[in-house]
Amino acid sequence: MKYFILAVLWIIFCALHSALISVTFTNFIKKKIGDYYRFYRLFYNIFSIVTLIPVLIYTAFIRQPPFFVWNGYLLLIKYILLFLGILCFVMGAMRYSFGQFFGLAQIKEGANHNLMNKTGKLSSRGILGFVRHPFYAGIFPFIWSSDLDTTGLIVNIILSIYVLIGTLLEERKLILEFGNAYREYQQKVSMLFPLKWIKAMLKTL
After folding, report:
1. Per-residue CA distances from 25 to 13, 18, 30, 127 (Å)
2. pLDDT tens sequence across 11-30
3. H-assigned helices in 98-194
4. Which of 112, 130, 137, 176 is the Cys-Cys partner for 194 at CB 3.0 to 4.6 Å?
5. Which DSSP string do the residues of 69-87 spell out, in sequence order?
6. What architecture (CATH level 2) is domain 2-204?
7. Residue 123, helix vs strand vs coil
8. Cα torsion for 23, 190, 117, 107, to the nearest 10°?
9. Number of helices (H) and strands (E), helices first, in the chain?
10. What sign has the CA pseudo-torsion 157, 159, 165, 171?
11. How far apart are CA 104 and CA 69, in angstroms?
12. Stated pTM of the model
């Protein structure tokens, strides 16, 4: 029963989190609140943190000793995964605007573009030439590098599905905003895993 409750809590959180930034809902909010929409990103972040806290508390409360532990030769894989996850976050942070990410730039400048960089224009510089969504890409190796008990396994599976769905929803918004320019970017750069870059590198060998 406790694992069922755990799954329901995480699914509700993820579904609500996605619904609040869906194109349908954000367009509805824009029409309703007009100029005040510039505060929406900040509200969204605060609401997400507040609603996540009880889910994390319950998750921690039902934790059990892990059935899978990264040890011995497997530690090398664990550290590689951690390194890749951190690398995605660090290199992504070099291209993103934290003011835009947290919603402060929207309040100050009234900018509401979906890209989280400073200019709001498409760019393939840095890590954005390898993957289109480095923050989302970094989540996968980061969460799966942890030791696993049943609780962790359930959470990781739900989060992995959520990140994939969230990325696809983000892609939809970016196509609506940038049209063919973003479709061309999609043709050149992979969404989460740099398969197109690897394929291009292999061709040069």
Report:
1. 16, 10, 9, 30
2. 999 999 888 888 888 888 88
3. 98-102, 104-109, 134-144, 150-178, 180-188
4. 130
5. ---TTHHHHHHHHHHHHHH
6. Up-down Bundle (1.20)
7. coil
8. 20
9. 10, 0
10. negative
11. 40
12. 0.86
